[in-house]
Amino acid sequence: MRVFTIVLLAALALSCKTEQQQVGEVAGTVTDLGVRYEELVVGTGKQAEMGSPVECHYTLWFADSAGTKLQRFQSSKDGGQPFQCTLGQRLITGWSDGMVGMKEGGIRRLIIPPELGYGKGGGPIPPDQWLVFEIEFLKLLQ
Fold this sequence. Notes:
Helix content is 20%, strand content 33%. The protein contains two helices and seven strands.
């Protein structure tokens, strides 16, 4: 009876995880615009809002529509300099939308569809490319 209970509990746990992953194809949250994100580390500092000037580190991968990383493209950590920007200004829509609500000290993985990224392509970004950004929110710049 004890083995049956353990197997039953394990099966229930797996089915719950599978259902969660099927919603939006990956575990996590989806913004109103369609950016999927997962909190890797929940921050405890000040919260970013649209229009906030922020400093962060990021790593960008090309991905498939499920958010599977296919090829690392670039990272602010390569040069050792954090990236500074203002949410909603001169950024792809998916980055700004995906960072809203994030708190300082947090790390978030964003899965951005092409229409919220670079669309038909821009410079070295292939057309209709899904993107995965891992963003480490260092601080608000106010």
